[in-house]
Amino acid sequence: MKEDSAIGNRRLPLSRGPPGGTIGVMRIFKGESECPTLPGAVMTLGIFDGVHLGHRDVLRQTGVWAQELDAPRGVITFAQHPRQVIDGRAPDLLTTLQHRLVLFARAGIDWAWVLEFTRELSELSAEAFARRYLVGRLRIRGLLLGFDSRFGHDRLGVDSPELPVLAQRCGFALRTVPPILAPDGQPISSTRIREAIQDGRLKEAEALLGRRVSVYGRVAHGAALGRRLGYATANLDLGREVRPPFGVYATIAELEGRSYGSITNVGYRPTVAKIEPGEKPDLMIETHLFDFSGDLYDRELEVHFVEKLRDERRFPDVATLAAQIRHDEARARAILKAAGL
Predict the structure, then answer these.
(1) What CA–CA distance (Å, rounded) separates 322 from 25?
(2) pTM
(3) Domain residue limits at 145
(4) Shared domain check, 274 and 155
C-alpha cells in the first residue's frame, strides 16, 4: 500500500510492542506502574478511535509544538472506551488499542502511555486528573487538545473558560486545535466514520480517515477449509473492531512492514461452514495473501479494503466456490494493479 504522506507518516513494522516495549521507534508504557519519566514533554490525551484526519491533525500539531520546544511528544490513551466503564454502552471500535498504537507510531509519536480506564479514574475531576497524572507523574510542559476534547468527571473541555485557568494553576501550557471539517462542513467524527463503514460507504469513510478503511488483528487458528480449496487464508481475530458489510473484497494485507495483494471474505462462509439449526454462526474475517508462503498463525496483520468484489453467497458445492474464488482473485489482482498497488 502506498503511504499517505499528507502528515509525514512513517513506514513501520506492524509488530506488537510488549508492555514497556516499542512499535517502530515509539515507546509504549502500560498501566500506572509503567509511567514514563519525561519531564518537559508535550502531550495530548484521548481515545482517538479511528485515528482519523481530525485526530491526526492533533497528533501532528503535538509534534510541531514539541519540535519548537525540543521536547518529547507523547499520547495518553486508555485501554477501555470510557463509556464501557461509565454505562456499559461502548460502541464497537474503529480501532482496537493495538491498532491505535500502530497508527500513533506512524504519526511520529515518541511515546504512548496506556491507562486502564477504571471506575476510580472516571470519578476524578479534571483538576485531580491533571495533578495526579499530567503534573504529578509526567511533569509535562504542554498539553494540546482537540476542539471537542473533555476529561474528568466534570467533563472539562476546551470550550470551558476554566480549562486555561486549571492549566495555569497546575503549571503547564495549553493549546487547542480547531476541527478538521468534512466536505459538507461538519466536523469529522468517529461516530460518522463508524456508520459509513457499517453501511458499506467505504470511500466516504476513507475520505474522513485520510487512509483506507482497515482492520487489524492477530491471525487465529481456523478449520483450514481454505487450504483444502487451494486458498490458504488468515483468520483474523478482531475483537470488537468495526468491519465492513458481508462480502468479498480486493484488499492489501500488511504484515510486518511488507504489503501483499489479497482478497478478503467478511461473513459466515455459508458454503463450507457447518451450521446447526438455530445455531448462530461465527462471523469470520478471512484473507488470502497473493504470492505468500509461510506460517501466519499468531502474527499480526492489517488488512486495507480497496474495493468490494461481490456479496457473500452460498454455492451449490465447493468446486463451484473454488472456481468463483479464482475469478475473485483475478479481478482483485487487476483492480490492485490498476490502482498501482
Answers:
(1) 43
(2) 0.87
(3) 22-177
(4) no
